[in-house]
Specification:
Layout: H1 8-20, H2 23-30, H3 34-48, E1 53-56, E2 59-62, H4 64-84, E3 97-102, H5 104-109, H6 111-121, E4 126-130, H7 137-141, E5 147-150, E6 160-167, E7 169-173, H8 185-190, E8 192-196, H9 212-215, H10 217-224, E9 230-235, H11 238-244, E10 250-255, H12 256-259, E11 269-271, E12 280-286, H13 294-308
Parallel strand pairs: 3-4, 3-5, 8-9, 8-10
Antiparallel strand pairs: 1-2, 5-12, 6-12, 7-10, 7-11
Helix pairs in contact: 1-2, 1-3, 1-4, 2-3, 6-13
Length: 309
């Protein structure tokens, strides 16, 4: 095969086609027309003397040769990006859309400050903030989502990651709650509680109140001292938990950075938990496919700078 006759753009087409396994989606990703992408697939088939993608009852599927080519092509393009991208500055007039998966906690405590800096530096940029239920690890790994910001128990080894900060826990309750005075472990256990959490990826499922292992940090910490709280309501949204905590008989135990968003509210009182709860880390994770991308580096610097400050 004469390498001088190979159009490197075809490798870009091949990479996206194997990722999306759909000509229309691949064309949209590259910002070209569907006929142009179909022509690219035709040229790839001639170049490799292989169908590359074949139609099945479940849509387009890669051939055996295509599956072998996928990591090799990705490696080639990754090395090209690594050589080229560091010398390029991100165009602050760009109209790029950055897709960021952020937990409700991260969305409340971090994203407003990020948006403020982004709009000041690059006003044409759009942030598309997704929830953990909207995406999968594969979406991040394939670069369809720019980054994920959450508390993670595990992450794929291929991901780049950075710890943004560590946080403790605080309790929120109404000043009319009779437990405000003399708030101790005994009174904490007598209270009705709001459970709030949503970590990881994928569609959420209902919570089993008896499954302490899956209830998270607060209930695991109680379990270690042989105690259990009475949970009256389960929610996946911190703002909802803060609103519900205004009721006179409910207590919400939340990450401190989220709870402190309501520290000046006359409708809520902030208290330290009457038992020890281990700190947790908020992390930012992203695909190696985007690690050397100039725009991605720019956004990561903004997020890291805000977290450090």
């Amino acid at each position: 095969m004469d390498l001088g006759r190979i159009d490197l753009n075809l490798l870009v087409h091949l990479d996206v086609l194997l990722r999306e396994q759909n000509v229309t989606k691949a064309a949209s990703h590259l910002g070209i027309t569907q006929p142009a992408m179909s022509n690219g697939l035709k040229r790839l088939r001639l170049l490799f003397e292989d169908p590359i993608l074949v139609r099945t009852s479940d849509g387009m599927a890669p051939t055996e040769l295509a599956l072998k080519l996928k990591p090799e092509v990705r490696s080639i393009l990754f090395n090209i990006e690594k050589v080229i991208q560091p010398d390029r500055n991100f165009d602050l007039d760009s109209k790029r859309v950055f897709r960021v998966m952020a937990s409700d906690y991260a969305e409340s405590t971090l994203i407003p400050a990020v948006l403020s800096v982004v709009r000041r530096q690059a006003p044409n940029i759009t942030l598309d903030v997704l929830t953990p239920s909207d995406v999968s690890f594969e979406d991040v790994e394939q670069g369809r989502v720019d980054m994920a910001i959450n508390r993670f128990e595990t992450l794929p080894q291929s991901f780049h990651q950075k710890t943004l900060w560590s946080d403790t826990f605080s309790c929120l309750m109404s000043p009319m709650n009779p437990l405000v005075q003399g708030f101790n472990l005994e009174n904490y256990l007598l209270a009705n509680h709001i459970w709030v959490s949503k970590t990881g990826f994928g569609v959420g499922v209902g919570v089993d109140p008896e499954d302490v292992q899956r209830l998270g940090w607060v209930d695991e910490a109680l379990g270690k001292i042989g105690k259990k709280r009475n949970i009256s309501v389960f929610t996946r949204h911190y703002q909802v938990a803060m609103l519900l905590a205004q009721q006179h008989d409910l207590v919400a135990t939340l990450p401190s950075r989220a709870a402190k968003l309501k520290s000046e509210s006359s409708k809520l009182v902030l208290k330290d938990p009457p038992f020890e709860i281990p700190e947790f880390e908020l992390k930012m994770a992203w695909s190696p496919l985007l690690h050397h991308n100039a725009g991605h580096q720019w956004l990561r610097r903004i997020i890291s700078g805000i977290a450090e400050s």
